[in-house]
Amino acid sequence: MPAGVYIHIPFCKSRCSYCDFATDVYRNDEAVERYVSALLKETGANVGAGLVPTREDDSLRSTQAGRLRSSPGHPSLITHHSSLASDTIYFGGGTPSLLSPDQLERILEAVRERFEIAEDAEITVEMNPATVTLEKLKDFRALGVNRASFGVQTFDDRSLKLLARGHDADDARNTYELLRTAGFDNISFDLIGGLPHQTIEGWKANLEEAVAMSPEHVSLYLLEIHEGTPLAEQVRSGRQPLPDEDLAAEMYEAMLERLDAAGYEQYEISNFSRTGRESRHNLKYWELDPVIGFGVSAHSFYGSKRWVNARDTLAYVRSVECGDSPVVEIDDLPEKQLKAEFAFLKLRLNKGLDLADYRERFGSELLSEFGEELGEFREIGLIEISESTLRLTDRGRLYSNEVFGVFV
Ligand code: SF4
Questions:
Q1: Residue 61 has pLDDT above 70, yes or no
Q2: Could you read off the pLDDT of 201-218 as tens digits, one per residue?
Q3: Ligand 1 close to Cβ of residue 97 (< 6 A)
């Protein structure tokens, strides 16, 4: 199964008030260049304490200066060294569109040296409004970037201000035009719902504008308040109201209806696309396929192992510069947990879980293991079980966490 490659670029122009991601404000070019150098070293080295196969024999690698040492307490976990194929590369952040074309090119070269990249690979860069010029976008296209994940969030200027997004709705409209002019024909919008002060009418107006612009893909996020963020403090002190959960559910349903009418297919609880424009990279997470991550706080999954890099940018850079692995945590998932994750990740997809896939992967029958509890959810109309498939119903997608609880 080809792996996905994830590259984390932590820098943003400013920090949004709700943001809980591993991000840093873009202070100067030197800091970014230092980070990119670390990324190149990590990508090119036998990273992750030998967690994944290298492209060359390890004995050759071990003579190279760029090889990273195993993390203390994390011995080598894999013994074969065949090359690893990949058909998706995803630059996430942060704001990867702040990279220069030259930096992006060097990172892509390092990834291509490390992995067998499919000719038709999906290469996505997350982009924020007002962070790119037409020239830069054309350069990105020329380097093979063929998908833009575009952080529109909302077309309401008041909400953008409240979220401290650092751009307004016109910036989003203008950047979208630039993307199309530069030849991007696969664009995904991120929209965020359930905001303080947001009304259902406001949300519907957002949807209308998004649909009129006709991106190939739409992802919905509902606002979560994370401890330690400025927004959490504003909510606690009463300066902003708590998002209304019932209203958020209403927004979700309005979105299902409007996007369906506009010809988008829902393929995952929060994701909608034109036919054939699903996010191939994100599907790997829901299919529990291997994904190898590089950069600060990057998560990886391969075989039964999951590992994560240092969350602090300076700690990440320093460890790689010293020749140490940036991996700070490795879990070898027991079969019980793998089964649970396989089941609830697949259930997020509208096509559901193929019972034969489960049998092939684990050598056991899902319905013998979880059938009793699942039967109760079938009775109340949250899931459908056929001979070959287990799926959430439309109503079940609204209460998915209840159903997922069966597997945890
Ligand atoms: S643009 Fe995204 S990653 Fe950057 S601060 Fe805002 S929410 Fe966080």
A1: no
A2: 999 999 999 999 999 999
A3: no
Cβ atoms 209, 155 nearer than 8 A: yes
CB 128 near ligand 1, within 6 Å:
yes
Task: List, for residues 108-163, the tens digit of each pLDDT value.
Answer: 999 999 999 999 999 999 999 999 999 999 999 999 999 999 999 999 999 999 99
Task: Evaluate: CB of 21 within 6 angstroms of ligand 1.
Answer: yes
d(CA 93, CA 263): 30
Whether residue 394 has pLDDT greater than 80: yes
Structure confidence by residue, pLDDT tens digits, 30-43? 999 999 999 999 99
Closest C-alpha to ligand 1, atom 3: 94
126 φ/ψ angles, rounded to the nearest 5 degrees:
-75, 135
Instruction: Check pocket membership of 23 for ligand 1, CB cut-off 6 A.
Output: yes
Strands of the sheet containing 115-127, edge to edge, are 265-268, 271-273, 217-222, 187-193, 147-153, 115-127, 84-93, 3-9, 291-294, 299-302, 305-309, 327-332
Which domains, ranges and CATH numbers included, belong to the chain? Answer: 3-285 (3.30.750.200), 335-407 (1.10.10.920)
Q: Is the CB of 219 under 6 A from ligand 1?
A: no
User: Cα(128)–Cα(90) distance, rounded to whole angstroms?
Assistant: 15
User: H or E element: which one contains 236?
Assistant: helix 230-236
Tell me if 56 sits within 8 A of 123, measured CB to CB: no
What is the whole-number distance in angstroms between the Cα of residue 38 and the centre of ligand 1? 22
Cα(168) to centroid of ligand 1, in Å?
14
